[in-house]
Amino acid sequence: MTKTASLLAFALAVLFGASAFADQPTMTKASTPTTASKPAKAGHRPLTGTSTLTAIERSGVLRVGVAVNAPFVMHDKDGQPIGYSIDLARRFAAAMGWKLQVVEASWPNLTTGLRTNDYDVVISGLSVTPQRARFVQFTDPVGEFDIGVVVNRNKFAHGGLADLRKRAHAKVGVRKGELTVDFARVALPEADIVEIDNENTAVADLGSGKLDAYVAEAPLPQVLEKVHPDKLRALGNEPIARTAHALAVRPNETGMLRVLNAWITYERASGWLKSRNDYWFNGTAWATEL
């Protein structure tokens, strides 16, 4: 697997010049299967009318679509997938006795890959919206998250969200294909919103001053400030919005949806979902894995 830096690793190493099924999932990239050690495009299964649940039971393999989005989906030092969403995927596959195949896609194509059967379910920090619900079917929520802002200290040394709102033509980065695009436009109407495909690029542009600010889900703004307080500043406890996340399956996949919802209910009651939420969103110990 190519050593593409995860978001935080990129911030640490580049941006600022710093020098069994549940154990290790297969990682591929969306559209010809190769070995697990080198990411490739995922095998595309034609939609035959067989339900997703039946197809998985026959093959014994659960294909999970993801897109890099710290701390939901990242790569560790060895290029292996880690993150909150990866923990969910591993836990669910293990509970069902299935082998896990993680299929990496781009954010703009994440739900498209689900509809074209590149994978069986999306587990990737995907926000629930009525617009997306026209094309996919969401499970019960697995969490709610704040949308925050992190700024370049040299470009915006003082002030909060209200001050940033007044700044005409401030260059504010957002990830293309994410709900943060709409939230940023509403919250910062005077800003120039810059849509960026790759989050590593966005963070690099923020650190260099090419961007004045970057809009992202918590805890990323706070993590970036903690790593480089001299370069970046999170705008305190001033979220611009709040969103709910869920898993997604194709429309009419009622069997798969029923199983996923039962698993979410079970793990919420067991306390496991809360423990994973605390680990990934209320601390930064995971940064040592990057």
Key words describing this protein structure:
D-Maltodextrin-Binding Protein, domain 2; alpha/beta; single chain; 14 strands; 2 domains; 290 residues; two-stranded antiparallel ribbon; 12-stranded mixed β-sheet
Largest sheet: 12 strands, mixed
What is the SS-derived class? Answer: alpha/beta
Radius of gyration: 19 Å
Number of domains: 2
Question: Which runs of at least 5 residues are low in confidence (pLDDT < 50)?
Answer: 1-23, 31-41
Tally of strands:
14
Count of DSSP H/I helices: 10
Helix content: 25-40%
Quick summary:
By secondary structure, the protein is an alpha/beta fold. The chain is 33% helix and 24% strand. It contains 10 helices and 14 strands.
Structural account:
- The N terminus is likely disordered.
- The chain is of the alpha/beta class and 290 residues long.
- The chain contains 10 helices and 14 strands.
- It folds into 2 domains: 183 residues, D-Maltodextrin-Binding Protein, domain 2, CATH 3.40.190; 97 residues, D-Maltodextrin-Binding Protein, domain 2, CATH 3.40.190.
Provide the fold topology.
Blueprint: H1 7-15, E1 26-30, E2 41-42, H2 52-59, E3 61-66, E4 74-75, E5 81-82, H3 84-96, E6 99-104, H4 110-115, E7 121-127, E8 137-138, E9 143-152, H5 161-166, E10 171-175, H6 180-187, E11 192-196, H7 199-208, E12 213-217, H8 220-227, E13 232-234, E14 241-249, H9 254-270, H10 272-281
Parallel strand pairs: 1-2, 1-6, 3-6, 3-7, 10-11, 10-12
Antiparallel strand pairs: 4-5, 7-14, 8-14, 9-12, 9-13, 9-14
